[in-house]
């Protein structure tokens, strides 16, 4: 993937077959197509993105907005594209989209055993604030609850600017436009 441009764009229905294929590879209890379609229809309170290498979907991420908070609902990268900073780019898109929506804090749950994901989230300022015992239904594994606050601060803006600069030559971002409160 070195030397290629990664496109981060809003997820569309046409992306769902590839998204669901990745979902089945990386999660023991994958989301259904019906659930994904329902999430995509909630444009006022959700943002979903895909990462593409050419026409091939290699990752995706989503966030739910509630008031001034964003709850990251999902993020996954095709196993063949992992360790290529795709997760970094998707997290950057989620953070930028959150700021455009007036969000000042983000949260998520992550498997206690998923050290790689925890490391990614920590790079974006997330800290563990607690646990949900037996949260994951497939094996009753605990989830760590992680938060990052004050994402609208100058300090956090500088962090995002550094990441944006790092990936500027290899990533094209297309975020949903918000015009007069309407999302397009």
Automatic annotation (TrEMBL):
Transmembrane segments: none annotated. Keywords: Acyltransferase, Cytoplasm, Transferase. The keyword Signal does not apply. The keyword Cytoplasm applies. Pfam families: Acetyltransf_1. GO terms for molecular function: N-acetyltransferase activity. Residues 6-151 form the N-acetyltransferase domain. Belongs to the acetyltransferase family. RimI subfamily. This is Unannotated protein. It comes from freshwater metagenome.
């Amino acid at each position: 993937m070195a030397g290629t441009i990664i496109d981060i764009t809003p997820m569309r229905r046409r992306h769902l077959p590839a998204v669901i294929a990745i979902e089945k590879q990386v999660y023991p209890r994958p989301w259904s197509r019906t659930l994904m379609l329902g999430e995509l229809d909630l444009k006022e309170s959700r943002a979903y993105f895909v990462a593409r290498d050419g026409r091939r979907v290699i990752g995706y991420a989503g966030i739910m907005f509630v008031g001034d908070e964003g709850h990251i609902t999902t993020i996954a990268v095709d196993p063949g594209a992992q360790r290529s900073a795709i997760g970094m780019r998707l997290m950057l898109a989620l953070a930028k989209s959150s700021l455009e929506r007036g969000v000042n804090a983000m949260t998520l749950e992550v498997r206690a055993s998923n050290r790689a994901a925890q490391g990614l989230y920590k790079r974006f300022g997330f800290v563990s604030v607690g646990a949900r015992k037996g949260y994951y239904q497939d094996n009753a594994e605990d989830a760590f609850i992680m938060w990052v606050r004050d994402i609208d601060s100058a300090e956090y803006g500088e962090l995002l600017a550094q990441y944006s600069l790092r990936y500027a030559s290899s990533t094209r971002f297309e975020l949903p436009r918000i015009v007069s409160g309407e999302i397009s």
